[in-house]
Write a structure and sequence with these properties.
Elements: H1 5-13, H2 36-68, H3 74-99, H4 106-127, H5 133-145, H6 150-172, H7 189-248, E1 261-262, E2 265-274, E3 277-284, E4 290-296, H8 303-318, E5 328-331, E6 340-344, E7 348-350, H9 351-357, H10 363-382, E8 395-398, E9 405-408, H11 437-440, H12 447-463, H13 473-482, H14 488-491, H15 496-505, H16 517-528, H17 534-546
Antiparallel strand pairs: 1-2, 2-3, 3-4, 4-6, 5-6, 7-8, 8-9
Amino acid sequence: MGEPSATVATARHGKPLTGGDAERMEQAPSFAFETPAGVLYANELMRGRLWVSLCVLFSLGGMGAALVFEGPGEAAARAAFVGSAFMLVVSLVGVRRLAADGSYGSGLAAIFGYACVAASVPLLIFVGWFSPLVLLIGLGGTVFAMGHSTRSVLMMGTTTVAAHASVGLASIVGVLPAGAIASPNLDSAAASLALLAGCEGLIIISFIIGRRLRVHTLLGVEAYGRVIRENARREALLEEAVAELDRVRRVGEPGRYTGLTVGSFELGVVLGRGGMGEVYEATRKGSGEQAAVKVLAVSGAEDDRTVRRFRREIGLAAAVDSPHVVRVIEHSPAGSAILYLAMERLNGESLAQQLRAVRRPPVLEVLEMLDQVGRGVSAAHAKGIVHRDLTPGNIFHHRGEGRPIWKILDFGVSRLAGGRHTLTGAAVVGTPSYMAPEQASGAQVDPRTDLFALGCVAYRCLTGQPAFRGRSIADVLYHVVHDMPTQPSLLADLPPEVDLVLAIALAKNPDDRFGAPEQLADTLRAACHGTIQWGRAERARQLLRTRPWAVPPRS
């Protein structure tokens, strides 16, 4: 009998419904996209279109019957004709508004439903309260109950039963004239009342059936959505594991430089590999101090330019005073044949390793990590350093003698990859899934580039999936530059305010992002508790109107 108001809010807002009283009209952003709930809404919209089209035919039939049959009198025939004409007008308006999809709202749905009830009263008087109209009313009740909130269904059901029962009682006690087209010929008033009670029971049952169908349909659609999300999660984790395979292979084995001495450190086995070199276990001669030494791979054609940049950037990195940035102990001096960087030896595991073991860490742990990493990012930005490769692999959970602490690796190294020459030759600099659009397109980077990457890290931790995926590096970079990822609250049980925060963090234009890591961390913490500043909420909605969240992947 109309469009489901509660499901409209769900489809636009992106939060799955569970049926029953859980349907609440919320203040939803004006953007819309396909979700399991959105698919259900589209189904209900098509059912509403079919129903109002049938009501057009029923109205024409009622007008024809009022002209052909005599019924209980000329006044009743005129009333039936006027009631049918009124239903025809309302039905035509419904057909037009439903054709416009989202322009049809809960208010118009209620008007259409009550108009049908009002128009049915003179028709019941003319045709009879025990006529095929009872089946039509019951069918309308089922359609209405499948598409509205519990409160609306109760109100519409009560109104419908009251209208039909009033006509039936008035006819039985003789208030209305006899002679309706389909009047039951019963001698006993008790039998007539029993038959009337049966009609009311039929109408009530029709509403109950519609309500149960809605609940079961919602449960089925939500189960389907869970399957889709789980398949997408597994595919994303597989892609992420394949992407990390080259980085972790042969870790713990001797490497190219094992056994050599660089500076004051003797290199041991390989601790890790990346696009810009290898990290070795190292021991300082004399003191036995443990360290991690990163040996940078540089082609001969780039030596002069890279060495100069290396010394400048590493000098800045060593000056960063933050417990959340790995401490630089030593780096290659001028004229060194091997470019290396000796850092404090950390105990623990990277965020990437944790995410492989636990798909979605507890939200409080994620917020604490973002807060500490954000402080490290701010300290480096204050020195003029942009990381450019802030990923879970470069965020480390160090478990030393005191309280565990999060540290950022490779500050001052990733910046070396700027300009026309890179440390990786023709390879893509950085990790594509965590690149900012300006970085992926080769434009100028600044501290806001790291804020985008930090937003990608937050997205990965909170949803269990990387923000940007693709079958190839070029495919991933295209999505980074042009598309938004899937809405976070569709992938995990998150407040809708988190969607708004991440929409700002992942804005394509650097001017639209947060101005500092602390702003992102603080706003996200508040959003996880269901609050967000009105100005930032409006800012996020405006961004999403321009570039909405992507359609969830299907299996």
